[in-house]
Amino acid sequence: MGKVARLGLPGPWLVIAVDTNILVYAHREDSPFHQAAFQRVGELAEGPATWAIPWPCVHEFLAIVTHPRIYAPPTPLVRALDQVNAWLESPTLALLAESPAHWPTLRDLLATGRVSGAQVHDARVAALCRQHGVRALWSADRDFSRFSGLRVVNPLLGEQST
């Protein structure tokens, strides 16, 4: 099973973290981005380098793919849980969680990024990435560009972040 979140991941600033939207696209075969996302996440999961998923992205993934107003039909909960388990089986996966350093980091990102409302979730993910020394966040969400010190790469556009 993947590693529990910890500070000082191997090779600071070498880890790639994956945002919710890429996880959703990799899972949902009806997504127009499925094939590319599935391939890229598979490369991380089967590769030798440490990669990461912030815990809030796991929670958000489950909320999105099982929501009947977002997907018709939604992914059954058991299948969504199995998908998370499959990612957790990657021996190179690290799960990013809050530490005592989280609040000062999050507070700084909220204030400097002038964040409010739903963007607080993005700031939380960005804070986790910053706190754990993540090199790049794979995301199709441009809102992360507001957070300094975090390189955002859309792996669906053929960009390489290695």
What is the CATH homologous superfamily assignment? 5'-nuclease
Based on helices, strands and strand pairing, what is the structural class? alpha/beta
Number of domains: 1
Give the uncertain stretches in residue-range form: 1-7
Level of helix content?
A: 40-55%
Number of helices: 6
| CATH architecture label | 3-Layer(aba) Sandwich
Shape: globular
Strand content: 5-15%
Q: Report Rg.
A: 15 Å
Largest sheet: 5 strands, parallel
- N- to C-terminal distance: 24 Å
**Would you give the CATH topology?**
Rossmann fold
DSSP strand count: 5
Mean pLDDT: 90
Task: Give a brief rundown of this model.
With 162 residues, the chain is an alpha/beta fold.
Provide structural commentary.
The chain has one domain (15-155): 3-Layer(aba) Sandwich (Rossmann fold), CATH 3.40.50.1010. The protein is 42% helix and 12% strand. The chain is built from six helices and five strands, in the order βααβααβααββ. The protein has a five-stranded parallel beta sheet with strand order 3-2-1-4-5, sandwiched between helices. Helix 1 (20-27) packs across helix 2 (34-46) and helix 5 packs across helix 6.
